[in-house]
Structure formats: structure tokens, C-alpha cells
Amino acid sequence: MRKAMTTAAAVVATLLLAPAATAEPPPGVADVDAYPVAQGRYSVPSDYGWLFFTTPDGRACGIGPNGGPVGCDAVPADAPPGTAQTVVAPGSPAVYRPSAGAGFGRDGVDVLPEGHRLVNFGASCAMGFQGAVTCQTYGRHGFTISGGYGVLW
């Protein structure tokens, strides 16, 4: 009986002292490569070689040719103050940066549906099922952003 009470007390203490869980990025960033490629209007005549899309919640993103740059005119709630874009380019980790305007937004492009991706000569973006956008270039650098969190690599 005494051993059972000691064990129970240890379990309760462990649970009470455990740190609170934090939001985690979607598991397996590479999993977005299995999403089907979206069909729709994602290019505009004025920006040859680029693909543009909006997310279901209205964020604007673009994928440059030959691996990028790739970015979104959006940052998550945990981004540094004063930033307005999330951007990655080949050979460099993703960053949050300030913006003077909507650099990745274009009128008339389609919404990228959840569970689909776009691929543009070495770079890609995918729309997850929980509102997260994952973009990567040449498979080495990228980002995942949602309204509440962001992960840069």
C-alpha cells in the first residue's frame, strides 16, 4: 500500500511539474511532397516564371523560378515585431523581414486548396490541413507558417 501511494505521488508530482505543451510544426515537413499538384490559375503574364497563390484565409504567397525566392506577405503571431513577410531563397535559411508593400500578392490568382501544393523549378509550397503553409527551396531551406506559429530552417 505504501509503495502504491509513493508511486501515485510521484506520478502526480511529475504531471504537475511537467512543462506545458507548446505548438509543434506539422510532423514530417517532407510529407507535403506527397500532396497532389494543384490545378488552377497561379501565374500572371506580368511575372513570367513565377507562381502566385492565396491561402484559404487570405495570405498571399509567391514562388520564384529556379528555386526562388519563395515567400508570403504574412508572418505568424510569434514573428519579431516590425516584420511582414516570410521569405526563403536558395542557399539561405528562411527569414522574417519587413516589407514596404505586398511583394508576393497578385490579383486574380486562385486559392491553393488544403492538401495541395505548387512546384516551380526547384521550389514548392503546400497548404496543410490546419492552415499552415510550408514552402521550401531545393529541399534544404524553407519555412512553415500559420497564424499562431512559424518554423524557419
TrEMBL record:
Q: Which domain of life is it from?
A: Bacteria
Q: Which UniProt keywords apply?
A: Signal
Annotated signal sequence is 1-23
Protein name per the record: Secreted protein
